[in-house]
Amino acid sequence: MKEERDVDRDHPIYFDHAATAPVCREAIEAMADALRRFGNPSSRYGYAREAARRVEEDRAAVAQAVGCTPDELYFTSCGTESDNWALRRGVELGRRKGKHIVTTAVEHAAVLETCRDLERQGYEVTYLRPDRAGRIGVEQLAAALRPDTVLVSMMLVNNETGTMLPVERCVRAVKAFDPGILFHCDGVQGFLKTPVPLARLGADLVAVSGHKVGAPKGIGALYIKKGVRLRPLLTGGGQEGGLRSGTEATAQIAAFAAAVRAVQADGDRLERTAAIKEYTLAKLEQTLPELEIVSAGDAPHICAVSLPGYKSEVVVRVLGDRGVCVSSGSACHKGKPSHVFAAMGLPKPWLDGMLRLSFSPASTREEADALVRALKDAAESLFTALS
User: Of the residues 24, 78, 115, 332, which is catalytic?
Assistant: First the structure.
């Protein structure tokens, strides 16, 4: 008899942490406390000054995790806003020098769509294509640099494959070619998921997001290295040092800082996450011989597999009906084919059957076993339906 799991919409078997993480208890409590202390940090009386003091304490906590000083960290609404700010205002700094941008074909849509919009405004963009494993080489990037290059954008961890790009070495290559070229890194999937604090990679601009690490949606940050003078993306009352106007989202900021502290207190989280991913991939290989491992992922929390001959959106729906959550790629695709896997030059049957699995330190072997059983049952039932 097959072991079934009753669908629990509130507590599913969840392997989609790259899309969003559960909001942690510490973040919920910090957010609730901040909501009760409703003072506007920009007002001048004592109640408001206390709110401002707490925002700066929270800024310091997130900055420490990013590896920068508090005055280099600016709160935003999300990683997408941070990427947009970095790219749109970053290219302006080199407008007298040129209008050439270098990025990769596997970036998040927040970067790629912004680059396409900049192309419509007259910029030229070079999109570096990955190899079959989703990797981009330092030499490949160096060969794309030109005298009119003003900005390079490269993510640290790919959100669909878990592949880590060589950001630190690429920064060195770019700065050796021309120290004036700005380097932006989308660090959303790498924040607190890799051992090195992101600011220490050497990039000038780094985007992070709260909801990937246990904070609620609606809060992110942009690291701007000292000396880089970006114009504001939003103008108004002059909050965030005059660079990002709008009344501070005190509750989201408090939750972000609380989530960061909670993650950092979990000392062996990366090792545990990598171990459960390894275990899951081994069980999948053993149980489903038709399954292909597209990317085991360098980062501890993401991998990509494929069931060639199956439609991933159908498999995802069938698993969801059994209370098991996985993804067919980035949540931002909303059912569209993944540009990341297409750029890797994979065969169409692999592309059709692609699944992304993403883990957390709290993921268990029991949950992994349930995923494998559900995926095996789904493959068998769909094969019967199709044959």
Answer: 332
Q: Can you list the residues of the chain whose pLDDT is less than 50? A: 1-8, 331-332, 385-387
Cβ neighbors of 63 (< 8 A, separation 6 or more) are 69, 70, 72, 73, 223
* Domains present along the chain, CATH in parentheses: 13-20+267-386 (3.90.1150.10), 25-265 (3.40.640.10)
Q: Which helix (H) or strand (E) holds 381?
A: helix 365-386
* Span 233-264, pLDDT tens digits: 999 999 999 999 999 999 999 999 999 999 99
Strand order in the sheet with 302-306: 292-295, 302-306, 354-358
Spatial CA neighbour of 203 closest among 58, 18, 66: 66
**What gap in Å lies between CA 200 and CA 68, rounded to an integer?**
8
Q: Give the pLDDT of residue 318.
A: 95
Q: Decide if 260 contacts 280 (C-beta within 8 A).
A: no
Type of residue at 383: F
| Cα 199 from chain centre | 15
For the chain, the C-alpha Rg in angstroms (whole number) is: 22
What's the first-to-final CA gap in the chain, in angstroms? 23
- Give CA–CA dist 185/200, Å, rounded: 12
Considering the entire predicted model, what is its pTM?
0.94
Catalytic site includes residue 332: yes
Q: What are phi and psi of 207, to 5 degrees?
A: -100, 140
Q: CA 296 → CA 11, 306, 356, distances in Å? A: 26, 12, 10
Helix axes 250-265, 25-36, angle to 10 degrees: 150
